[in-house]
Amino acid sequence: MANLMSQFQQTSGRDPWLWPIVPRLVVFALIAAGVAILLWFLWLVNFKDELEAARAKEETLRAEFSKDYKKAINLDALKKQREQAIQYVNLLEKQLPNKAEMAALLSDINQAGVGRGLQFESFKPGAPQLKDYYAEQPIEIMVTGTYDAIGEFLSDIAHLSRIVTVGNMEIKKKNPTDERLDMKAIAVTYRYLDPEEVASVQREKQKQQKR
């Protein structure tokens, strides 16, 4: 112990490279420890920055995943709605007659009135109004019959396998002494356009766009 103490006493005022071995080793050890602590501190600071960056990236990925997940859910819902819309359109298409079937539909409307005991004063199909892919077929109807018979006739039309709407109705008593009523209305049904009619409609639209 005395020898060690004497070695440290010999360091006073001398060049460190001339110090005894033990003091030099102690100083070198302290310097090495200081450098190690400094390097560890720098690594810790850098690690903290990397950790915070990783956490920020994780939050971003979580947000993106949540957003994509919601989109996926919405996409499934939209696909389901689209399928339902297609099914509904297909159902409506089945209710639209073609040009050849229109005569049979007009006959069905007429027979619905006759079957309810109505007297037809007028049953006059008008000129078809061509749309993009279908045509509206107006029919001027004038019938005479009881209130119940007219109501049942309108109900029968609503339940036909084809789409028929009735509007512009005017109902009045035939005369003060007669219980029957006169009804004037415009029934509108719809049909497919044949390929020639579709082409004609498209040509007309192109002409209007050029004007």
Automatic annotation (TrEMBL):
Q: Coiled-coil stretches, from where to where? A: 44-95
State whether keyword Transmembrane applies.
yes
Q: Matching InterPro entries, A to Z?
A: PilO (IPR007445), Transl_elong_EF1B/ribsomal_bS6 (IPR014717)
Q: Name one GO biological process term.
A: type IV pilus-dependent motility
Query: Any idea which UniProt keywords this protein has?
Result: Coiled coil, Membrane, Transmembrane, Transmembrane helix
Transmembrane annotation, as ranges: 25-45
Gene3D superfamilies membership:
3.30.70.60
Q: Which PANTHER family match?
A: FIMBRIAL ASSEMBLY PROTEIN PILO-LIKE PROTEIN-RELATED (PTHR39555), TYPE IV PILUS INNER MEMBRANE COMPONENT PILO (PTHR39555:SF1)
Q: What is this protein called?
A: Pilus assembly protein PilO
